[in-house]
Design a protein that fits this description.
Strand content: 15-25%
Helix content: 40-55%
CATH superfamily of the largest domain: Isopropylmalate Dehydrogenase
Largest sheet: 11 strands, mixed
CATH topology of the largest domain: Isopropylmalate Dehydrogenase
Length: 341
């Protein structure tokens, strides 16, 4: 049975969404759940869900990492051997083989730093990348990095492309996924120095490389994987979420203030608008995958609700079943060697 660790102290409203989502996931996916955090806060919420004989256990962690943990203080909390925070204890369960994946809705930087120091990197990968799923005109696109590393080198984008391709194939079921390098123009000469130097590296890897893509082409569904640095990817992610929310809010406002005909039209469109809202809702994917670290780690929004936590567990479970970690370990060295020839 797959065992997923959930950081019960991760979400903004911890531990309620984290625990309720965990119970939902255990019931629906028939997997084992390990809740890590302050047991005194977790247990009453868990018991209120009437978990019965569900395979859910609690591992006590008296401390937690927050948005206030930064710089050297964060590094020390993330790497010290006797760390007592929920992220460190949860990730150690994965490292020691007691669980298959770790899910948190906590501080992205803290999760990345803790995973980096406690799990280490897959050989051949220098920096991790946070991969998320963008809805597109033709389905979806894996975009990485969206915030783990704002400053990268061409070699890092090269590694991101390989990992993103494996993730799209194994988890999304896309055969020979098309890879795009996010730039400000399609031509090979476009982009800054980082993009111009990364392009030939990715091109020579043997991947199904589409070439440079602009943001509109990513949303238009031209590629299955979009590769970028963490700064650009984070701006893309937050901008797209804001635009999606704006569109939905403006439609609701127009229906409410447009008079009787608008209300009738809104009622007729409600099922279709519900499907669009679901497509644009980040909670439907639940979490992004931190690719490159030597273990499966998934990071969701701080504002995650129980549905988002449940879906984050689903994504983690799918990655475990698809052996994403093993595939990256096996493929990264081969691809990098091929591109160097």
């Amino acid at each position: 049975m797959t065992r997923i660790v959930i950081d019960a102290m991760g979400s903004d409203e911890f531990p309620t969404p984290d625990v309720v989502g965990a119970v939902m996931a255990a019931r629906e996916y028939n997997i084992g759940i390990i809740l890590v955090g302050d047991e005194a806060k977790i247990r009453p919420v868990l018991e209120a869900q009437n978990p019965g004989n569900l395979p859910i256990s609690i591992v006590h962690a008296p401390e937690m990492l927050t948005m206030e943990d930064k710089g050297m203080a964060l590094v020390l909390k993330a790497r010290r051997a006797n760390a007592k925070n929920s992220m460190a204890i949860g990730i150690d369960l994965v490292k020691n083989g007691e669980a298959d994946a770790f899910v948190t809705a906590g501080n992205t930087g803290a999760a990345m730093t803790t995973a980096y120091f406690r799990l280490g990197m897959i050989p051949g990968v220098d920096k991790p990348a946070l991969a998320v799923i963008f809805p597109t005109a033709t389905g979806s696109c894996v975009v990485l990095d969206v915030g783990a590393n704002p400053d990268v080198k061409p070699e890092n984008l090269h590694q991101f492309a390989i990992m993103g391709s494996i993730y799209a194939e194994k988890v999304r079921g896309i055969q020979s996924p098309k890879i795009g390098l996010v730039s400000n123009g399609e031509e090979e000469g476009k982009g800054n120095e980082l993009i111009r130097n990364a392009l030939p590296l990715i091109k020579n890897t043997g991947l199904n490389f589409f070439g440079n893509v602009e943001g509109k082409e990513v949303i238009g569904g031209k590629v299955d994987v979009a590769v970028t640095d963490g700064f650009t990817g984070n701006v893309m992610l937050k901008s797209s979420e804001a635009v999606a929310k704006l569109i939905i809010d403006k439609i609701k406002e127009a229906v409410k203030t447009g008079g009787p005909l608008a209300l009738i039209g809104g009622a007729l469109l409600k099922p279709a608008l519900g499907e669009i809202k679901k497509l644009l809702d980040p909670s439907e994917e639940g979490a992004g995958s931190l690719l490159g670290v030597n273990g499966l780690v998934f990071i969701g929004h701080g504002r995650s609700d129980a549905l988002a936590i449940k879906n984050a567990v689903r994504v983690a479970n799918n990655a475990v079943k698809a052996n994403v970690l093993g595939a990256i370990r096996n493929d990264i060295a081969t691809r990098l060697k091929k591109s160097a020839e």
